[in-house]
Specification:
This protein is an all-alpha fold. The chain has two domains: 1-197 and 480-510, no CATH class; 208-479, no CATH class. It contains 22 helices and two strands. The chain has a two-stranded antiparallel sheet with strand order 1-2. Helix 1 (5-33) packs antiparallel against helix 2 and helix 9 crosses helix 10. The chain is globular, with a radius of gyration of 25 Å.
């Protein structure tokens, strides 16, 4: 398949223009809640860059021919490139707005300004990929006083904290989905973008048409966010600002909080229970949540992956809860803490209501496995996804069965439907590539951070690829990632990108064959066609025999 770069520019151009809307909204809110000078300083550069670059892409590269319909290759590459471009634009408000050392920081040295941009890039990547790891700390933010215990995150400007939460809310469903309707009207093929962005069961189970599908997804997403916002405010007792921010970061399985201590700051069982409910929903396939909304609970329970999701969470809660009770924690507190963190880590949200880094070894091992596995396919969570794990396990049992019953035809099914062999091969290949990438990541991180423990390295790699956020060891729930060197932060942000794209899209972007130009490929096709005509002509002509 051939890459048409003008179509790719259209995808990126419209995405950049779409980013102007949330940037402008947060800029206005910053002017209201903080001051207009900060709003201009933080958001105007990002708005101008998005507008100018996006307009140039749309103005210089246009297609009006009938062949301009979006192809799968262009959709996957477009999605892969949208993320770093979006992350760059999203990092500018942090850098220019003073969350980190930037060009407007007084008496800042060049090396500190560059480190400030690395911090801003990491914070933006962590936001848009819904990872939830943060580098906002007393040593890195000019808004905080080093050596104090004051809440550093809460000391940041209100408008920039809202932007930070909004990046996760936008990234949860996928920035590409924002422009899907526009793209489908202009160049067609919007469903290809949806397939590249959302993995799992067929989107056609929601609505048959692209526009209806996008509206259904975003409508459900917005409704759940609004309901959680109301629950946190009127039942949990949060302030309006905190309720809005935590609703924005729960449904996308993000985990950013407005407090250093995360959910532990509120010390409220009611707030924890509310967030538990919505973290559980965030880990469910959106197709099934649509069935919940229509009242078809029976059909939802028949889903094999959903039942696995419930059983696997229940098993993790049981094991960890028992381990906490055995070390002296009360049963009630152990159950609540376990339930909260199993859902937080299992759905890759990353909230913390306690320091699970101090829990027994068996509890930390289970949490580490939850980071790797994740929740349901087609949800906003990260990780490998339970559907792939189930298919991988079924493949293993099928191969074992073939040894004892070589003549029997062994078929893999999901939800009583046959899984095609090409899909099975894709899943097995992705699992294998994930293991290789995870091992490579551990080695690279160990080289970049030679003083860290094995638990820290292992969990940072798992957290990055699983888009979880908090890790274990030195980068656990009570710490930030600010002590990492710049190289480790950039590499960790790369892992977040891989994890958010679930490997497949990232591999397509990085594969050299994806970047063949249309003109070059046309020439190759014409050359092959000419060779074929010559061969056909030679075969049709009578041959002179040599005696």
């Amino acid at each position: 398949m051939i890459m048409r770069f003008d179509v790719l520019h259209l995808i990126l151009g419209w995405t950049l223009l779409a980013l102007i809307v949330p940037l402008t909204v947060c800029g206005i809110i910053t002017a209201i809640l903080d001051n207009w000078q900060l709003a201009v300083q933080a958001f105007l550069p990002a708005i101008l860059i998005s507008g100018v670059v996006g307009s140039c892409m749309l103005g210089l590269f246009t297609r009006t021919d009938s062949a301009s319909r979006l192809r799968d290759l262009e959709a996957f590459v477009g999605v892969g490139l949208v993320w770093p471009i979006t992350v760059f634009i999203g990092s500018l408000p942090y850098w220019f707005g003073g969350v980190f050392v930037g060009p407007f920081t007084v008496d800042a040295e060049a090396i500190d300004i560059m480190r400030g941009f690395v911090n801003a890039w990491f914070e933006s990547m962590s936001g848009f990929t819904t990872s939830g790891a943060t580098v906002i700390s007393h040593n890195m933010s000019p808004n905080c006083i080093p050596g104090t215990t004051a809440d550093c995150i809460n000391a940041q400007p209100r408008g920039l904290l809202l932007w930070r939460s909004l990046t996760q809310w936008l990234g949860g469903m996928g920035v590409v989905m924002l422009g899907m309707l526009v793209l489908s009207r202009i160049i067609g093929g919007g469903m290809a973008l949806a397939r590249a962005e959302l993995t799992g069961p067929s989107l056609s189970r929601l609505r048959p048409k692209l526009r209806q599908t996008a509206m259904a997804l975003w409508g459900l997403y917005l409704l759940l966010t609004f309901v959680e916002m109301l629950a946190l405010k009127f039942i949990g007792g949060m302030t309006v600002f905190d309720a809005v921010n935590h609703a924005f970061t729960t449904m996308p399985s993000g985990g950013f909080s407005t407090r250093d201590a995360s959910i532990a700051y509120y010390d409220s069982s009611v707030i924890e229970l509310i967030i538990i409910v919505f973290m559980f929903l965030a880990g469910v396939n959106f197709t099934l949540m649509w069935l919940f909304g229509t009242g078809d609970f029976g059909a939802a329970w028949k889903d094999e992956e959903f039942r696995t999701y419930v059983y696997y969470l229940a098993g993790a809660v049981t094991v960890i809860c028992i381990s906490l009770v055995l070390v002296g924690m009360s049963a009630g507190q152990a159950f609540l803490d376990t339930l909260f963190h199993v859902l937080s880590i299992g759905t890759s949200t990353g909230y913390a209501s306690a320091d699970y880094g101090q829990w027994p070894g068996v509890a930390r091992i289970v949490l580490l496995l939850l980071m790797i596995v994740g929740a349901c396919a087609g949800s906003t969570s990260g990780g490998l996804k339970l559907m792939r794990i189930r298919i991988g396990v079924k493949v293993a049992f099928r191969e074992l069965a073939r040894i004892s019953q070589p003549r029997k035809i062994h078929i893999i099914r999901m939800n009583k439907e046959v899984v095609e062999q090409k899909q099975v091969s894709l899943v097995v290949g992705m699992l294998f590539i994930w293991v290789l990438l995870f091992g490579f990541s551990c080695i690279m991180l160990a080289m970049m951070m030679p003083g860290e423990s094995f638990e820290t390295i292992f969990s940072v790699a798992a957290s990055g690829l699983g888009n979880t956020g908090p890790a274990l060891g030195a980068y656990g729930p009570t710490a930030t990632w600010a002590s990492m060197n710049s190289g480790s932060l950039l590499f960790s942000s790369l892992l977040m990108w891989f994890g958010r794209l679930e490997l497949l899209t990232a591999i397509i972007v990085l594969h050299p064959s994806s970047w063949r130009k249309e003109e070059k490929a046309d020439g190759e096709r014409q050359g092959l066609a000419m060779v074929k005509r010559i061969l056909d002509r030679d075969e049709s002509e009578p041959q002179n025999k040599v005696i």
